[in-house]
Amino acid sequence: MAMANAYLTSSFTSIRLRPSDFSAVKSFPTTKSHLYLLVSPRIDSTSNKNVMMCASVDGVNSISSSSFSLNSGPETDYVPMPIVLIDQDTDPDATIVQLSFGDRLGALPDTMKALKDLGLDVLKGTVTTENSVTQTKFFITRLSTGRKVEDPDVLEMIRLTIINNLLKYHPESSERLAMGEAFGVKPPEKKIDVEIATHIHVKENGPRRSLLSVETADRPGLLEIIKIMSDINVTVESAEIDTEGLVAKDRFHVNYRGAALNSSLSQVLVNCLRYYLRRPETDEESY
């Protein structure tokens, strides 16, 4: 049995072979109770699968056979959902930007630099891991004022800057992001129908404000809806702007002259936003 350079990481085991041993290098998932070793590598011609042996590390001489298909990649080929969340509610003094891409994110110094290049001050950053998903949060303010970001144009620049960095430093994310259609190495397999994907709801959230929920296919220029609300004298108190892969899910606390929106104004707002979202996508140069 010939085998070279076998090594174990914290999440999976990889077996490296000489070209004479096997034509492809594969990574195999492991658990705490199993260590996968490729013993006598060969191809099963009847099923086009590579046959390997599994030796249990918590039993004695427990050997069983297993196989994986050469036509389908290992579990590590799975591309997680990229999520960019802009939170205007949680902190009264700062805009919180949260970014997650499975467990593939690093320290993100380039993202921090890109935010600073927008005239923003990154007050602090936190990193947490939950269910193998790494979530990075940046607490940011306008460098010129020391206050949270209110301008919808700047909020959109923040969102698109982070997505552009994802596409640049994690090119595999392009197949999961709407922006990957124009700028990614691999566009999404499916493009979401705006008409089908768009859902807009307004409901009361107390006597003095309403909650507006907008879900639609992601694209540049979405935060123009804040300006549309301003044009009909609807005030945006706070916002949560959530980009999940191909879909944007935004929530706004709004009021009209200090009161919740009545049914007539709510319908006007919904109609205006739906009309805007049905329009052809913004020119690519707006990216």
Domain count:
2
**Total strand segments:** 14
Tell me the distance between the termini. 55 Å
Strand content: 35-45%
Describe the sheet with the most strands.
8 strands, antiparallel
Mean pLDDT across all amino acids: 77
Fraction in helix: 10-25%
Could you tell me the radius of gyration in angstroms? 25 Å
- Give me the strand/helix succession: EEEEEEEEHEEHHHEEHEEH
Instruction: Detail the poorly predicted runs.
Output: 1-75, 282-287
Structural category: alpha+beta
What is the 3D form?
globular
Care to describe what's here?
By secondary structure, the protein is an alpha+beta fold. The chain has 6 helices and 14 strands. It folds into 2 domains: 6-77, no CATH class; 83-286, no CATH class. A hairpin with a 2-residue loop joins β13 and β14 (247-255). It starts with 5 loop residues before the first strand and ends in a 9-residue tail after the last helix. α1 (109-117) packs antiparallel against α2. 21% of the residues lie in helices and 36% in strands. The strands form 3 sheets. It has an 8-stranded antiparallel beta sheet. It has a 3-stranded antiparallel beta sheet with strand order 1-2-3, with no helix packed on it. 23% of the residues are buried. It is globular, with a radius of gyration of 25 Å.
